[in-house]
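Researcher: Re-running this chain for the archive, since the previous output was lost when a drive failed. Same request as before.
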Amino acid sequence: MNVLIEMQTLCLTRPSSGADADSLARWYAAKARLHEHLAGEGGPDSGRERELAASARRHAQRLAGAKV
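Model: Regenerated structure tokens:
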């Protein structure tokens, strides 16, 4: 994973307000994958990266479950 490319992709593809739940769920899942990768790199911020990954993953799951 190229972290800079992934971060840029997240910035450029962030859903706008009013986006459908599927789009939001996919974006948060991608955000979770990035934070999981960063956590796996180790370092002093790895614990915080794990927390951010878990939070983004939970949010993606809530959004995916909110489909009507």
